[in-house]
Amino acid sequence: MPIRTAIIGYGRNGSSMHAGPIEKNDAFAMTAVCDIAPERRKQAVERFKCPVYEDYKEMLRKEKIELAVVVTRNDQHAAMACDCLRAGVNVLVTKPQAVNADEARSMIAAAKETGRRLLPWLPARWGSDLHRLGELLRDEAVGKVFVVRRVVSSFATRCDWQTEKRYGGGYLLNWGAHIVDPPVVLLAGKVKSVFGRMKQVINPGDVEDLFFGVLVLEDETIVQVEYTISADPLPSWVIQGDRGLIVVNGRNLKLIKQTPARPKDPTRFSTMQAKPAEVLEETVEGALYGDEFAIYREIGAAIRGEKPYPVTPEAALDVSRVLDAIKVSSAENRVVML
Ligand SMILES: NC(=O)c1ccc[n+]([C@@H]2O[C@H](COP(=O)([O-])OP(=O)(O)OC[C@H]3O[C@@H](n4cnc5c(N)ncnc54)[C@H](O)[C@@H]3O)[C@@H](O)[C@H]2O)c1
């Protein structure tokens, strides 16, 4: 039997990235859709011929749902997720799962209390760039990695609730999960300390459109994370190792292999020029922010109990803790220890 699924928030993202795989994967059946906007409900009825609701609590009472997908504004996620869990419904929550770590903890507590599944949406974990970089690092392509930079840049402006603090807007919450989590996953590391900065540069509203964080991992690797405003794209990844460098610019990946020269006679000065570098270039294929159809296959398997969902609520809580630390560090001009 297909998994009886409902979307709460049939907006830009709910009606595309989530409705698409639910529609196309036989493991799921769209059982109901909830949105406060009448035009969105109309679109959902036309597409899925399913019951639609203005009030998600009424939907939870009236419909037999196994999985609710929460794709509303950021400030609504935690309360909606907890209500779904307490109604006995498994819940998938888009990113950011919550506006802070305390809200994320309340969701974990509700999942434990009810025995239902809380599935965080961290699609960049399925990103094709992250996957390729993982292969290269496992092969020690650049030796021991000591610095990773992960940057997303644009010169675009937007004008919606994402520019308003009261709705959980701001680029830290909007982009943080895509930017902060992948390098930590790549290095299989744990964040020890955070220094952060946030600024509002070109966007309207009352929130930041730039954030910057320097994370030090427990093994002392330095990770620099940024969403920034730039008139020309900056490299999305820079990975520095003691045997080379990887630079990723969108889909272009450049691997530079180099070995430092060692003195023949350590008691005498010599020029110590490194050997000429070996440079390899390739194109990264596949979805950089994860293929939602592939992710939904994993969600289906997890709900049917066939295999665990790869992203635990505790891993998503770690992301929220780092985002909180960037915020606190920026406000208080200090390093935050985790
Ligand atoms: N790659 C990604 O994972 C990705 C991409 C885009 C957006 N998102 C996330 O998706 C969420 C929604 O973003 P969006 O761009 O689709 O916003 P949106 O404003 O287009 O959609 C939100 C929808 O929620 C509805 N809504 C608001 N209050 C509601 C309520 N009480 N009950 C039911 N519906 C309600 C709105 O009417 C709207 O249709 C955000 O949290 C965003 O961060 C994730």
Quick one: overall form? elongated
Which small compounds were modeled alongside the protein? Answer: nicotinamide-adenine-dinucleotide
Q: What is the C-alpha radius of gyration, as a whole number of Å?
A: 22 Å
Would you identify the CATH architecture of the largest domain?
Answer: 2-Layer Sandwich
Average residue pLDDT: 96
| Total beta-strand segments | 15
- Contiguous low-pLDDT stretches (5 residues minimum) are none
Helix share bin: 25-40%
Across the major sheet, the strand order is 14-13-12-11-7-10-9-8-15
Can you describe what's shown?
It is a single chain. The chain contains nine helices and 15 strands. With 338 residues, the protein is an alpha/beta fold. It folds into two domains: 3-121, NAD(P)-binding Rossmann-like Domain (Rossmann fold), CATH 3.40.50.720; 125-244 and 320-337, 2-Layer Sandwich (Dihydrodipicolinate Reductase, domain 2). A nine-stranded mixed sheet has the order 14-13-12-11-7-10-9-8-15. The chain has a six-stranded parallel sheet with strand order 3-2-1-4-5-6, with helices on both faces. β1, α1 (14-24) and β2 (28-34) form a beta-alpha-beta unit. The longest helix is centred in the C-terminal third of the chain and has 20 residues, at 313-332. The protein is elongated and about 85 Å long. The structure holds nicotinamide-adenine-dinucleotide. Nicotinamide-adenine-dinucleotide binds at residues 8-14, 17, 34-37, 40, 56, 71-74, 76, 94-95, 121, 123, 174, 289. Nicotinamide-adenine-dinucleotide binds next to α1.
